[in-house]
Every structure is written in structure tokens, then in C-alpha cells.
Please model this.
Amino acid sequence: MRAIYQRELRAFFTSVTGWLFIAAHVCLAGLYFFAVNLLSGYGNVADTVSSILFLLLLTTPVLTMRILAEDRKQKTDQLILTAPVSVSGIVFGKYLAMATVFTVPVGVMALFPLILSAYGTVPMGESYTAILVYYLFGLACIAVGLFVSSITESQIIAAVVTFVILFAAYMMTAITSLISQSGNLLTQILNAFNFSSRLEDLLGGTLDFKAVFYFLTVILVFLFLTVQSIQKRRYQISVRSLKFGAYSSGMIVLVVAIAVFANLALAALPDRYTTVDVTQQKLYSLTDTTKNLVQNLEEDVTIYVINSESGQDEMLGDTLDSYRNLSDRIQVVYQDPVVSPNFYQDYADTITINSLIVESERRFRVIDYNDIYETGFNYADYSTAVTGYDAEGLLTSAIAYVTSEEAPVIYALEGHDEVALSETFSDGLKKENADLAELTFLTQGEVPEDADGVLILAPVQDLTEDDAQKLIDYLDRGGIILMETSYIDRFSEEMPNLSSVLEYFGLSIGDGLILEQDAGRMYQSPIYLLPEISSDSLTSGVYGSQYDYVMMPYAQPILIEERDDVEVNTLLSTSGSAYAKTGLEESQDMTQEEGDAQGPFAVGVSAKKTAGDTTAQLILYSSEMLFTDAANQYTMDNNLQLFTNAVSAMTGEEESISIPAKSFEASYVTVPMASAVRLGILLMGVVPAGLLAAGIIIWIRRKKR
Model:
């Protein structure tokens, strides 16, 4: 086999064919990489790969058409057939030679994600899975082309037939849908040679080993068929063809049957054993929060789906199966509105198809299907597009709600120009199954007894002395407050009553605005902090994560006075090069001057004060924009995670059960135009031209010998 491999590989690289194939692939892949990723800024190389899959239908026949057909036409195949070389060695040697040639441009494509990573965040798992898919698909196409080349001596016929077979396999989903929308025996047979559905499975963000195994079996089956095709001609020289023909047909049927049954057996396995979620947002897998909740359920929960099982939303159905596989306590029941049109009326006045009803013995919650998918408006073409998937967040929250003893109540202080919670943060609070109520001391004499916590979100006006005392009285009862402060240059002087609540824990807000000098601890501007995160239950899910940063614009120093009865943990802090500057409201000069307070500064703390059997807690952040969409959108929902962790601490949960919606939006990179053009010229022009020139020079030199 080695001799055949070396002979064929030498033939590819001493003629123009191999060089042309590589150059064409690099050029066309570079063209789409330039247009899709470098110019348009898409960070996922899978977008490029899905666009160039069709190229294999055109280039593979060129590579494979001569590999056996030319030997047969020139009668040199008889020399090989009569040589002491196994037929399988001949076939595998030729196949590996073509696979080696194909590996070269794929190796160049493997550099694409690394190039993009220099300009932004790239989903490496999805990108390299897509490149693997391209490689597997190419190897399968080469195996098909090799077989076709073995049954004809015409290179043109071999190329055309290979293209027709590959095109049909690539378009099989459309072909079968034309034959029958519901499916029949013929479509089931044709789907055995359906490349497109397997490619979709692999390019959708999951590494599906069923699809990988399918392409491997396609390769092996067509290599086997090629061996049988050559064996038949080889034995015709010395043995009666009828005898071997019967043997050959039986072997073909046996091998194909084994391949079919092996794929059917693998297809019968649950997806949780055969798929790996490679998406950056883990769209197709459940978080540890969900797993811990569902696996520890002590009562039964039924999830009713308002649809038939055959008509359900496929992605939602996969998510429900994942929940059902986690615990026997979860049951999924489909209620077909055609069969049971009035079923929902015990739960809601109206309901949409594919909506969910989560019910236990205690209570139920309805999840409207319209809330499961988030949408956004595209101003480029004035259309609405799906931007996120929130099934896990809504389901986990609902399961926790229907199995909990009672819903906690969080009070939000109002009347001092506080920041209003956005829809994103309100939804995060709802997912913690907490009710949000207003706290207005003008009409309420104290913090209500049923308060599990109090939110104080960046008041601009100071509290009255009496209102501050009411908060202190609440803390004396063992209350917990989550507070973020507004940027006020001399906070302690201008907000003395609110500062007295901080003083209860030995805390105060320092003067001035923090300016960060460490480029790794700020975003574009020194006032947009990316503070260092400390390990704590309140930073769970953020600390140590892949994207462990939060954004804190307009933060001020938190000063800590050590007290024996107070335990203070720093949650967020600046670098030592940060400094606090006063007077920026009148002056725009941010230059550090003598007298400016020098960091590092605490900008987020948790303080606990113990008196007897009661413990009061204050979770304090010194940025009025921390819990806003404006900051959260830059941090992969880490700011939201901090908020829900604090709410979880208020409600007494060990960890937050709020799971943010998983984004469908593409990741983007920012490639300067000059860099994009240089890389485009290199990949579309310089490298392909160099490869083609090398092939021509080698071919000319060989001709002159």
C-alpha cells in the first residue's frame, strides 16, 4: 500500500492536478472567508464553511476522475492487478493519496479561527466542528468519486457521474420532500444517502457522533465497493466471472446490511449519549443549575405541551426530553388541541400552540410559547429575527416555583429618583420566583414583615433621617439589602442619611470617580471599569467562568472600617493603578494629580453584622449602571448574574436559579479594513497563485526530462 500511496501522491504533485485542486480550494475558501468573516465581521467560521460545502461537489470529481479510470484506459491497471499487491492495498493507497491532497487546503482553513481570534471573540468549538464536518464530507465525496472512477475508463464520464451522485445526495432532503411530504418507503430508502440532513445536524452547533459515524460508514462502504469492482476485473483474468460475481454480490449485500444496521443501532441511542454541545452559549445542553434542581426533586412535576407530539417545536421538544432524562419525577404530556380543545381552560383564558403548563400538587405556571423565543428588529431589512432561546430559564424557574413552599417578596425602595429595573433584570427576578413590591415610606411605616429583601437602586435624592432609621430597624431584625449607589462626587456629604445606613456596617462611599489605568481592567474608557472578581457565592457563575468580567461604569470607592461585629468580603475591586478624581462634574481633565486617592479600590462588597441571634447583610455596589441593560449587554449577562445571585441570597436559596436566555445572535469581530484587504489578497491571490505557479514549474521541469 505504501508504494501505491507514494506513487499516486508523487503523481499529484508532479502534475498540475494536485496543485490546481489545492490552489482552487484555498482561493475559494479565502474568498468566502474574506467576504463573510473579514468584511462582514461574523466571528463564526461555520458561516463560511456552510457557504462553501457545494464547492466539494465541483472539485472532488476533478480530483478523483483519473485515479482509476486513466489506469483502465491505458491498460496499466492490468500490471497492478497481476502484481503481488492486495486490491485493498491498491484502493487504500490511492484513497489516502487523494485524502492527503485534500488535507492541505483544510489545514489552511484550520488557521481561519486563529486569524479571527486576533480581532475579537471567536466560537472555537463551533468553528472547528464546522471544519471537521467539511473534512469528513470531503473524504466521503472522495470515496464516492474513487468508486465511480473504478467502473469506467472515461475520465469525463467518471467526473459527470460523480457530480450527479454527490449533487443528488446533497439535495436529497429537497428531493424526498418533492416525492412525499409525510414520507414513505421510497423516501426512507433515499434518506439512507442523504448527506444534507447529516450536514445540518453537524453544522447546527452540536458534534453529533451519529452523523460522524454515518460519514465514516459511507467512506468504508464505497471503499469496499471499489475493492469489489476491481476484484471482479482481477478475477476475470484467471477465474470464471460468474462464480466470483455471485460471491461478490453476497459480500456487497452483507457489508451494506452491516453498515445500515450499525447506523440504525446508533440512531436508537438517546441524543445525550451521542451529541456534544459545542455552541458558545450551550444552546443544546442544560446548565448545572437545572441539573441540580431537577435531580433533587422530591415531588412529581408534569409539563403539559399544548400540541401533538408530532407537531411540536423540534428544539423545544429536545429541551423537554433533556429534562425528562434528568429525573423520573419529570413527566412530559402532550395535549393535542384538536383532541382536547378545552384542556387549557383550567389554567388560562387563552393559550398559544406549543405553550407549556408546568404543574405540581401545589400550584402551576403557564409558559407562553411567545416568551420562549426572544426576537429583535433588524433595521437593515426591516424584519424581525429570533435572537434568543429562553426555554431552560423559563422551565427551571417554573419547576422551582411549583415545588417551592411559598413565593418570596422583594421590596424596591421608591420616592428618591431610583433607577427602574429594565425588563431583562425584572425577568431575572421573576426567574428567581420572587414577587417585586413597592416600598414607599411615605405610606408605609416600616419595612413589611414579609420582606425577604430590600432593593435600593441608585437613589439620586437622600432619604430622610426617619426613613434611614426604618431601614436600620429592618436590618436589626436580620434584614438584607441590595444597594447600588449613584455617582455623587462627595457622596457622604450630600447623602448623609443614606450614608448612615452604610455606616451601620462600617462602610462609606469615597469622594470622586474611579479612573482605571490598567488596560485589562477597563473597556475603551477609564471610567468603564472591568473590575477583578473575587470568589464568593454572590459571584458564582461569573468568577472563574470563561468570560469572567462585569462592567461598572461611573464607580466610586467603597471605604471599609474594620469592626469586630462586622464581616466584610470584597466582591469586586480595581487594580492598584486606578485612582479616584474629584471635581469631574466641572472639569473634563482626567489626568492624575497629586492628592487623588490611589487604588486598589473595592467597588462591590458584602457586609454581615451579627448581633445575638440575628445577622443583617448589605450587598453594596458603587455603580448606578451596574444593573442596567447598557452595561449588561457587554458582559454575556454577567451583570445580570450578579443581580440574580444577590436576589437568591435574599430569598435564602443556596444558588441562583435564574438562567439567562441563550443568544442566537452571531458573534462579531472587528477587523480593520486594511488588515481585511491584506489577508484577502494573501488568501485569494498570493497563496493560490504561488501554489499554482509551483505546480506549473514542477510540471514543466518534468516534461523537459
User: Anything to note?
Assistant: The longest strand covers residues 602-611. Residues 237-247 have pLDDT under 50 and may be disordered. The two ends are 28 Å apart (CA to CA). DSSP finds 27 helices and 25 strands in the chain.
